[in-house]
From TrEMBL:
Residues 81-104 are annotated as: Disordered. The keyword Transcription regulation applies. The lineage of its organism: Bacteria, Pseudomonadati, Pseudomonadota, Alphaproteobacteria, Rhodobacterales. This is RNA polymerase sigma factor. Belongs to the sigma-70 factor family. ECF subfamily. The keyword DNA-binding applies.
Amino acid sequence: MLAVRDGRDRAAFGALFDHYAPRLKAMAIRGGATPALAEDIVQDVMLTIWRKAAQYDPARAPVSAWIFRIARNRQIDIARRSRRPEPEALDNAPEPASGDAGAGDILGLEQEAEALGRALLALTPEQRAVIERAYLGDLTHSEIHAETGLPLGTIKSRIRLGLDRLRHELKDLRS
């Protein structure tokens, strides 16, 4: 690893890859990944190791711990991304023949959008910024952390508190 870090040694990286790739794949499969996904994780982890080799510090951790930590974090990111709720399927029913029913639907959607806009304004600026990144920007917590530098716990708390506030503000829309 030191040869990769200090000299960008491709042969040393090849040896590192040959040694760790099967172990990383086995770890990913034990963690619930399919073999194809496990191979993707291994490729991504090894690419990250090559790109971030300069960050490796043998005084802080052995190379195996550093590599397996990268793999574990990557697998967690993938699992979180896959657990995101999918939007509900849209009903592809034909539009009503009269223009009034369509106008009523459009008016209802506009009113809901206005209510959501007002509810978002009721949030603290910090909560609103994190919720917009997570739900409108479709960013993971890790991506928000990378953009803002906020701790993951703070990001999660702001999202949770903001969503609770939005539920309270929009409770009248449900009825």
